[in-house]
Protein: Tripartite tricarboxylate transporter substrate binding protein
Amino acid sequence: MTAWAICAVAIVGVATAFSIQAADEGEDIRANMTFIAPAGPGGGWDTFMREMQQADTTNNLVGNVQVVNVPGAAGTIGLGRLSTMEGNASTIMVTGTGLVAGVEQLDAPVSHDDVTPIARVVEEYDVVVVPADSPYNTLDDLVADWQEDPRSIVWTGGGSFDQLVVSEFAIAADVDPAQIAYLPNSGGGEATQSLITGTAQAATSGYRDVSDQIDAGRLKALGVAAPEPMEGVEEIPTLIDQGYDVDLANWRAVVAPPGITDEEREELTQLVRETIETPEWQDAVDRNSWAEAYMDGPEFDQFLKDERDRIAGLYQEMGM
Structure:
């Protein structure tokens, strides 16, 4: 039995319970909704869904709404459960770059082709960080040693997306991505601990996950993998400005089960549009250091296909 299958068996009872409840709620899809976070509490996907829940309930955009965590296998367990909820328009799920990567990395028997795209909503970018006492003060310092011995720099991060950023950075820095020494962790907190204890020498992580440690002087930020400096922390230079062509967005989007009608898809799209106009959502964007990146319809459908091809290409270059 594969690792993906083992995770699926472990979670199926919980997932079935909430899917049955959602299926019995009647025709008004906003009356009783389920928002799925395909990860444990406290992470980026969970935060996204709970911020959406707060904005929607505060502004009476929905009736009752529950957030259900379906963790496992880089989000593909949640995606698999959503794909079985045929026609259930009262349930939506957050997805993103990391889940597209998880499907490729794990060769999961489910993909975004098996669900209904609704809209891309926000994106954020990783920063490259090192311990405060690290000898590396610039990316060029780090890259010099990395090029000389790729295995000498142990990288860490909190998920599939963070590993993708390291791989793209390696390619831009003329380092063989197949030679990367990478220590996976389950979140930004564990990745930070690996840096502080010396288990790893460098990390990529969402800025929000490491901002407290940067502000406290425990970590140094050497660059951000964004097209331009982030608002509020313009002192962190981009990788592009330092000569490394790395611009990889960690986007987050909403998808629904397969088999919903065109009218239901438009209703869910309208719900997302209304959500992002609320003061509560705008506050969440600021607090979480997100960038607005709304996209829906055929443009978003094509974007998902392009992302899958791009990430599959990255994994191929990594030798995975």
About this structure: The mean pLDDT is 90. The chain has two domains: 3-124+250-318, 126-242.
